[in-house]
Write a structure and sequence with these properties.
The chain is mainly alpha-helical. It has 4 helices and no strands. It has one domain.
Length: 161
């Protein structure tokens, strides 16, 4: 969807925000035993740290790896829905374990189970939620908002010409 570097940055900022905030809420709810209204407020504290980390990892590290694998799997004759699903799934497959590692190092007490065991457990708990959230809610929402912002701007330019 993004056509320029600026659009790519805006898209990545929106997508990482939606994904990180949802995953923080999910993890806090797991830790306290359920979802409450306070979870949304509590998540804002971690968001200040985790959102920039996710953005940097996405844009400067993992995006290139996702594109590498994506180009090997994709066929230009595939329907757009399949292209979106493959790209989104590949991103989750890479971002989820990496962000779970970051969260394990920053927020988990891994003294008893060990760092690797804790990280694998966090990753296993996060992956289904991250994939479902990306495919069914966060991804479509961000793409819809992105289209509203950038298609409206391009339409305004076309109307002025």
């Amino acid at each position: 969807m993004p056509k320029t570097k600026f659009q790519n940055i805006v898209f990545a900022l929106m997508m990482t925000f939606i994904m990180v905030y949802a995953m923080i809420c999910y993890n806090i709810a797991l830790n306290i035993g359920g979802m409450t209204n306070e979870v949304f407020i509590m998540a804002l504290g971690e968001l200040k740290l985790m959102w920039p980390i996710a953005f940097v990892l996405e844009v400067f590290v993992l995006e290139r790896v996702v594109i590498y694998f994506f180009e090997r799997v994709i066929d230009n004759r595939m329907p757009l829905l399949w292209i979106i699903l493959i790209r989104s799934s590949l991103t989750v497959c890479l971002m989820c374990p990496v962000m779970s590692l970051v969260a394990t190092l920053l927020f988990k007490d891994y003294a008893q189970a060990g760092m690797i065991g804790t990280w694998l457990q966090v990753s296993a708990l996060n992956f289904p939620m991250a994939l479902a959230w990306q495919i069914f809610f966060g991804g479509p929402l961000v793409r819809w908002i992105f289209r509203l912002i950038f298609e409206r701007k391009s339409n305004v330019v076309l109307e002025c010409e």
